[in-house]
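Quick one, probably user error.
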């Protein structure tokens, strides 16, 4: 059966790094935030709680800095080429991110995916308030959104590819026939049927 839908995580999958860690470095709290991110991605910390905690630490950061960083992120090797190749086969390509719209919406036209679902950083008077809201706040969010997309598009689990690296991708792995663990944590590799260890997304094309 041919694929009709491909869903990619953003941070450490389509983009080489974690957007929130880049923000944190501006405030000199990069190590602290990166540690919480790692705990969440490895499945040792609830994603919702970790997101609230990390965004709370960003309170006071200029929103203009957030936008500038979001528009200068390093994209993963092969991201653009892989998305273009999938779309040439008639596959819809979507990005699900526990990260932020400032990054995923900006990257959409550069990398070429069809839609993005992520979270919004609340800001007031030009600064982050430490609050966050959006589509991808919980451990179950990606799986929940994937099932809704499959229903809208009339796509089966067998016709769906998902690709990610961390524990918050587990929920979407439960609803896809092709499950790619990309430079992933062990907790995700256990549920994958394609494992890629090298930072080159084009390797997916050789395996599907």
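Nope, works fine. Designed sequence:
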């Amino acid at each position: 059966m041919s694929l009709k839908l491909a869903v990619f995580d953003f941070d450490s999958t389509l983009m080489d790094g974690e957007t929130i860690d880049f923000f944190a470095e501006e405030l000199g709290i990069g190590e602290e935030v990166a540690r919480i991110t790692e705990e969440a991605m490895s499945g040792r910390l609830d994603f919702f709680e970790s997101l609230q905690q990390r965004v709370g630490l960003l309170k006071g950061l200029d929103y203009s800095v957030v936008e500038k960083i979001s528009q200068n992120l390093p994209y993963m090797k092969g991201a653009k080429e892989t998305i273009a190749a999938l779309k040439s086969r008639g596959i819809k390509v979507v990005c699900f991110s526990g990260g932020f719209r400032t990054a995923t919406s900006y990257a959409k036209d550069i990398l070429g995916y069809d839609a993005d679902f992520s979270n919004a950083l609340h800001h007031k008077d030009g600064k982050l308030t430490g609050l966050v809201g959006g589509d991808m706040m919980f451990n179950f969010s990606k799986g929940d959104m994937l099932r809704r997309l499959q229903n809208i598009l009339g796509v089966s689990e067998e016709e769906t590819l998902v690709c990610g690296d961390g524990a918050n991708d587990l929920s979407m792995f439960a609803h896809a026939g092709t499950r790619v663990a990309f430079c992933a944590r062990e907790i995700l590799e256990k549920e994958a049927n394609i494992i890629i260890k090298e930072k080159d997304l084009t390797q997916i094309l050789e395996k599907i």
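Strands lie at 5-9, 92-100, 115-124, 127-134, 160-164, 178-182, 194-196.
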